[in-house]
């Protein structure tokens, strides 16, 4: 269905769209980038040029490659210029109504065989496809930020998507040197669902006063082997993004308490303390601010790490149990999409499923909250003495 000659369209030239365009152009495709904001389009073109120049200076790419990428990308000022595309990836504002109207406009412009994809992080692919007459050609192709560096791409079919189109899109993105995983069209797909407890359980531990933020971050890094702790990571992502993803996932799961957002994070958003980008989030980034020291108490650290890990494994297991993705893809998604030190299901095997279930049962018993319910698949595996791998 697709080849190197396939023309790729990208709508939206913001953070994600411009990265996706660069990835496709690096893989030798002709790429057309459209944005309805002329300034955004001009900015994307300048950023692309300066970004590639830096890569040449750092000897990451050759001058020939730089010229090839630049000559492969065209920035266009009309949506109708995308009429010759074989695949269009939409990366505009995260708003269902706006996306639907762009998709239905696109259908009037493109050929009947053109495949239409959305890079949405949190909206339903099926509902975007619902705006199209040929909904079978619509799917989700979800890159991670920055698209040029993060290897993972989630491929999501909506309920009307043609399976051949989904598998052809997967093959195409694989050929762009990305790692693809297949996910069902459910809130947060794989990564943005399975990663929720990393933040929410850390927030809960903090709100309960079991440990302070630097200690929780220290435990996850030093004992757990994670690259960053939850609070530093939320500050880096920005609370306008991280909190909103949590809230969206929670609402879309009909307010399942497992996904409930934390007030302490909402207050930061209300205060405009968005994290690093605004100089203050959970931590203060002012030049004269002191970085608070963790309490390097190994017993407390272990308690924190084991609790958060058990909740992460529980969510990964539930994602498998509900057939949202395969065990291999869930593990791949978390290691390649958010740099977890190990796949969560493999980690569960190493720890022993029974150990994880005991941890979850203890939390469930103590709190008596639905949030801590154990995934049925874990209980079943203990009974049947099974492992994920
Ligand atoms: N930023 C991330 O970390 C991230 C990661 C994965 C997926 N996503 C998803 O990718 C999409 C884009 O996110 P982003 O961070 O690049 O946003 P962004 O704000 O950086 O860029 C969006 C661009 O879309 C343009 N735009 C808005 N409405 C448009 C329209 N009707 N027609 C054409 N262009 C339009 C805007 O002018 C802007 O340049 C969203 O759906 C988001 O959920 C974001």
Question: What does this molecule look like?
Answer:
The protein is an alpha/beta fold and 389 residues long. The protein has 2 domains: 8-184, 3-Layer(aba) Sandwich (Rossmann fold), CATH 3.40.50; 193-383, N-(1-d-carboxylethyl)-l-norvaline Dehydrogenase, domain 2, CATH 1.10.1040.50. Helices cover 51% and strands 10% of the residues. It contains 17 helices and 8 strands. An 8-stranded mixed sheet has the order 3-2-1-4-5-6-7-8, sandwiched between helices. Helix 8 (196-207) packs antiparallel against helix 13 and helix 15 crosses helix 16. It is globular. The mean pLDDT is 97. Nicotinamide-adenine-dinucleotide binds next to helix 1 and helix 4.
Question: What strand line-up does the widest sheet have?
Answer: 3-2-1-4-5-6-7-8
CATH class of the largest domain reads: Mainly Alpha
Q: Compute the number of structural domains.
A: 2
CATH fold assignment of the largest domain: N-(1-d-carboxylethyl)-l-norvaline Dehydrogenase, domain 2
Mean pLDDT: 97
How many helix segments? Answer: 17
Enumerate the distinct ligands.
nicotinamide-adenine-dinucleotide
CATH architecture of the largest domain: Orthogonal Bundle
How many strands? 8
The H-and-E topology, N to C, reads as EHEHHEEHEHEEHEHHHHHHHHHHH
Name the beta content range.
5-15%
Assembly category:
single chain
Choose one word for the global shape: globular
Low-pLDDT stretches are none
Main pleated sheet: 8 strands, mixed
N→C terminal distance: 34 Å
Classify the secondary structure makeup into a structural class: alpha/beta
Query: Percent helix among the residues?
Result: 40-55%
């Amino acid at each position: 269905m697709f080849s190197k000659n396939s023309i790729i369209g990208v709508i939206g030239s913001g953070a994600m769209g411009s990265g996706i365009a660069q990835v496709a152009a690096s893989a030798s495709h002709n790429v057309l980038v459209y944005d309805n904001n002329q300034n955004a389009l001009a900015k994307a073109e300048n950023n692309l040029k300066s970004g590639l120049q830096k890569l040449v200076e750092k000897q990451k790419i050759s001058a020939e490659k730089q010229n090839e990428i630049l000559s492969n990308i065209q920035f266009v000022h009309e949506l109708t210029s995308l009429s010759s595309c074989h695949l269009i990836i939409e990366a505009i504002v995260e708003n269902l109504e706006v996306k639907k109207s762009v998709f239905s406009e696109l259908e009037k412009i493109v050929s009947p065989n053109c495949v239409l994809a959305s890079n949405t992080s949190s909206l339903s692919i099926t509902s975007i496809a619902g705006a199209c007459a040929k909904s079978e050609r619509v799917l989700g192709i979800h890159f991670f930020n920055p698209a040029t560096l993060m290897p993972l791409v989630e491929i999501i079919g909506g309920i009307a998507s043609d399976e051949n189109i989904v598998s052809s899109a997967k093959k195409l993105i694989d050929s762009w040197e990305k790692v693809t995983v297949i996910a069902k069209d459910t809130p947060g797909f794989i990564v943005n669902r399975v990663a929720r407890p990393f933040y929410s359980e850390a927030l809960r531990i903090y709100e309960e006063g079991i440990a302070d933020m630097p200690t929780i971050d220290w435990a996850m890094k030093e004992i757990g082997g994670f690259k960053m702790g939850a609070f530093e990571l939320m500050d880096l992502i920005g609370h306008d993004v991280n909190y909103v993803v949590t809230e969206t996932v929670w609402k879309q799961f009909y307010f399942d308490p497992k996904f409930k957002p934390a007030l302490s994070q909402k207050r930061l958003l209300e205060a405009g303390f968005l994290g690093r980008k605004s100089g203050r989030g959970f931590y203060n980034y002012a030049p004269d601010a002191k970085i608070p020291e963790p309490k390097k108490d190994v017993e407390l650290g272990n308690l924190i790490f084991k609790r958060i890990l058990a909740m992460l494994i529980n969510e990964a297991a539930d994602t498998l149990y509900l057939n949202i993705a395969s065990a291999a893809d869930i593990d791949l998604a978390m290691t390649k999409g958010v740099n977890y030190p190990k796949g969560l299901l493999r980690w569960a095997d190493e720890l022993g499923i029974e150990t994880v279930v005991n941890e979850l049962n203890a939390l469930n018993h103590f709190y008596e909250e639905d949030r801590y319910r154990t995934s049925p698949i874990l209980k079943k595996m203990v009974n049947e003495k099974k492992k994920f791998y």
